[in-house]
Design a protein that fits this description.
By secondary structure, the protein is α/β, with parallel strands linked by helices. It has seven helices and 16 strands. Helices cover 27% and strands 29% of the residues.
């Protein structure tokens, strides 16, 4: 009887280990599209727009020549696309595949915005990479902003800062001259922005960097996130930061250093923003 119990325990342990490995492989290599609906009084009645956010790709490829990723991007039919840093990894040797992806994206979307992450700044060829994005008609926001016309009745601000953790941000410069009557989106690779800077006129802050906390334990939460350490406060999802101000932290698509995700599936996010009475 004891031998049977022992055998069953061993088989159970093997099954759990195999199931965990399968889950890790799935969460790390199969992404989902997360959809979010927001409303704000600054959006005119009857108006709406969609933002597609991609973060922390780290030069990862989904499907041959990124076919699966490109299909999802095209099907989103957003009004604008934002890339919130770490498009490449600090160790990326060649940019052919990421530039090919960007060229396909700008052929679909007229408005594509990018802000730097820590891996862009850790890379020895930061500036040539950023110039490559600009040459491909990506708007690289380096402590700057644009007023974007979505349609005849809707204009919004898009503000972008260089990576906070790399000490490249110039927040005052980025917001200088921003029309606060318009709905304002801030792109900041790291969510640590909200700890460093208060009362900035952003209605929606879009970040990444955390990789969703890498490993998430049910009923416990995310274990660790870069820049925040153990049990991070801002690991993934939506947070209310101030009066009518939201922070959204995207899990991202890729991985770095430890190439593992667990109960933390890679994703790309589609947000629809509408009028609020």
């Amino acid at each position: 009887m004891g031998r049977k119990i022992k055998k069953a325990s061993v088989l159970g342990g093997v099954f759990i280990c195999m199931a965990a490995i399968v889950k890790v492989m799935y969460d790390t290599n199969v992404f989902k599209r997360k959809e979010i609906h927001l409303a704000h009084k600054k959006i005119p009645e009857g108006s709406r727009f969609k933002i597609l956010q991609m973060s922390d790709l780290h030069n990862k490829v989904f499907g041959r020549s990124n076919k699966k990723l490109l299909q999802t991007i095209e099907e989103a039919e957003a009004d604008m696309m934002v890339i919130t840093g770490d498009l490449i990894d600090r160790n990326t040797k060649q940019w052919a595949q990421v530039f090919s992806l960007i060229e396909r994206i700008v052929s679909v979307y007229r408005h594509v915005f990018f802000v730097t992450g820590n891996h862009e700044w850790d890379h020895p060829l930061t500036h040539p990479f950023l110039e490559g994005l600009k040459e491909r008609h990506v708007t690289v926001l380096r402590n700057d902003h644009v007023a974007l016309q979505i349609n005849d009745g809707l204009r919004i601000n898009v503000v972008g800062i260089d990576d906070v953790l790399s000490n490249r941000e110039k927040v005052g410069q980025a917001f200088d001259g921003v029309d606060q009557q318009l709905y304002t989106i801030l792109l900041s690779h790291s969510p640590d922005f909200v700890n460093e800077y208060k009362d900035q006129p952003a209605d929606l802050i879009l970040s990444g960097h955390t990789h969703g906390g890498k490993v998430k334990i049910p009923f416990v939460g995310s274990l660790v996130a870069p820049g925040q350490g153990l049990l991070p406060k801002y690991d993934q999802g939506m947070y209310r930061i101030g009066y009518n101000q939201l922070l959204y932290v995207d899990r991202g698509l890729g991985t770095s250093v430890v190439h593992v995700r667990f109960f933390n599936q890679s994703q790309i996010s589609l947000m629809e923003v509408t009028h609020k009475d």
